[in-house]
Design brief:
EC 2.8.1.7, cysteine desulfurase activity, Aspartate Aminotransferase, domain 1
Length: about 375
């Protein structure tokens, strides 16, 4: 049986050099980074080196990088602290954000009475920026905008520089869930003046359970997790040293090889889109995911011309054939309510059909993509 992994938006295969780096860390750097002896100092030095590596690549200051357990914790930390410590009274977001953002802002509305507003979307799932401006202009309270850079289900790319400009003009803070873009796109936080961003190492061939928050200097945010003075007092608890050095190694590899890997993966996506259009002409691509100019090069979301009853067996059939993909975000795999993203942009008729997200990496091949389409055609027939 073929084994084809096309669920890289959920998590990625760890690079071999990252595994070796982490093995060395686990075997030889076992001191507590907060200890003052040589064992602890060696671990602390490596953590600070990782912080500086990330900051330099993003043109940030090392103090602006806070290591976390991943994107969800970072999103929660930023949004909750913004309300509690910065006096944010209004949060403007969209209904197709990751649940790490949506569930957090809904909780803040219920707990603190935050005025939660949603920017309108166009038919492809893009936030309508003129409506964002309107919402900001009519509200005089302390405001925060939270819009993701790349949608994790349909791959749409936000015009993040335009949103930065709009937020600055209206004196609003801007938080962006950048989990699907850090490690895949270059970043310069002096040019793209986002106040808060987040990353997860396992989205760019690093380990699970580690990521970071970018928090612009002098933001005023205070710690959510209290205890020791780790992470400059912002996040208490002994650091997951082996994960942090693994994140650094994956981050270095991602940016050193970025141009080549963008070309490789873009070619795979373009090929897959063409094959689907030629061999399954009644299929359609959700959002802008079939357009390489308007969506990320790492994924497509395909609506297939299969009736609802037969569609119940599709993912099971693909799994039996050794194909890994998803019907939405991995974080909602236990839910029967379907994709909240597709519910916002698809017609009732298209919602009755199965939609699948296929997400690619440098480890995939065109032969694998041909096999996937063979299996889809076989199932449909």
């Amino acid at each position: 049986m073929e084994k084809v992994y096309l669920d890289n938006a959920a998590t990625t295969k760890i690079r071999e050099n990252v595994i070796l780096k982490m093995q060395d860390a686990l075997a030889n750097f076992y001191g507590n980074p907060s200890s003052s002896h040589s064992f602890g100092r060696s671990a602390k030095t490596a953590i600070e080196s990782a912080r500086k590596t990330i900051a330099k690549t993003m043109n940030a200051h090392p103090s602006e990088i806070i290591f976390t357990s991943g994107g969800t914790e970072a999103d929660n930390m930023i949004l909750r602290s913004a309300v509690r410590d910065l006096g944010v009274q209004t949060i403007i977001t969209s209904k197709i954000e990751h649940h790490a953002v949506l569930h957090t802002v809904e909780s803040l509305r219920d707990e603190f009475g935050v005025n939660l507003q949603f920017v309108d979307l166009d038919i492809y799932g893009n936030p309508i920026l003129s409506h964002l401006e309107q919402l900001l202009a009519q509200d005089t309270s302390k405001k925060l905008v939270s819009l993701m850079h790349i949608n994790n289900e349909i791959g749409n790319i936000l015009d993040i520089k335009a949103v930065c400009q709009i937020c600055q003009e209206h004196e609003a803070l801007f938080h962006s869930d950048t989990v699907q873009s850090i490690g895949h796109y270059p970043w310069n936080v002096q040019e793209t003046k986002v106040d808060f961003m987040v990353a997860a190492a396992h989205k760019f061939h690093g380990p699970k359970g580690v990521g970071f928050a970018y928090i612009r200097k002098n933001s005023g945010l205070k710690p959510v997790i209290l205890g020791g003075s780790q992470e400059r007092g912002f996040r208490a608890g002994t650091e997951a040293f082996h994960n942090i050095v693994g994140l650094e190694e994956a981050f270095i590899s991602a940016y050193e090889n970025m141009d080549d890997e963008i070309n490789t993966v873009s070619e795979l996506k373009s090929y897959f889109v063409d094959v689907i259009r030629n061999r399954i002409p009644d299929a359609s691509f959700n959002g802008h995911s079939g357009n390489l100019d308007k969506s990320t090069y790492t994924l497509v979301n395909v609506c297939l011309p299969i009736d609802a009853q037969k569609a119940l067996m599709l993912l099971f059939h693909l799994d039996i054939k050794g194909i890994a993909c998803s019907k939405g975000s991995a974080c909602q795999s236990g839910s029967d309510s379907g994709s909240h993203v597709l519910n916002e942009i698809l017609s009732k008729d298209d919602l009755a059909k199965p939609s699948l997200r296929f997400s690619f990496s440098k480890y995939n091949t065109k032969e694998e993509l041909d096999y996937v389409v063979d299996v889809l055609e076989e199932f449909m027939e």
